[in-house]
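Let us work through a complete example step by step.
Step 1: write down the sequence.
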Amino acid sequence: MKTSFETAFDRIVEVVMFENWLRFYFIAEKGDKLIISLPEKAVERIKTDYPTLFGLAEMLDGREIDHQSSVEAVCMFVAGRLETASPEHTIKEVFDSARFHMELNLFGMWVQNHEDQLDEAFIPFARWQQLYAEWRSTPKVQEQIAGIEEQAARVAGNATETTQ
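Step 2: predict the structure and record it as tokens.
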């Protein structure tokens, strides 16, 4: 059984990925601004296929989007939707964790490295998740993760030694 941290971690990462997917496929220019613009067909598919994430799509549809508003939308959605399923301190613990920041960096790296492939044709969110999971499980990426975790453990160990 997953701990409350692991459950919250998985849900928050899913929300971040979903928001990124929305920006990737549904961003449009309106004057000199970028907005999320969901066609009615997309709204219906999201409502059917991703009901737990639909509220985020609804929140972002038609809104101007930039890095700051993306972060705020994810935080607001997580606070409003996950708080009942996960204690507030657990959500804060996830946002503050090195594991979460590493996952965000890995996901960002995956999107950048696969941007051409992702841009060739529309890919449903579930497929994005699958492609990311496959990439993340490759030996090369697992070696990178192990190296990052090893370095973090060394830094934590050094910090403990200097405070004693």
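Step 3: interpret the result. The chain has one domain: 4-163.
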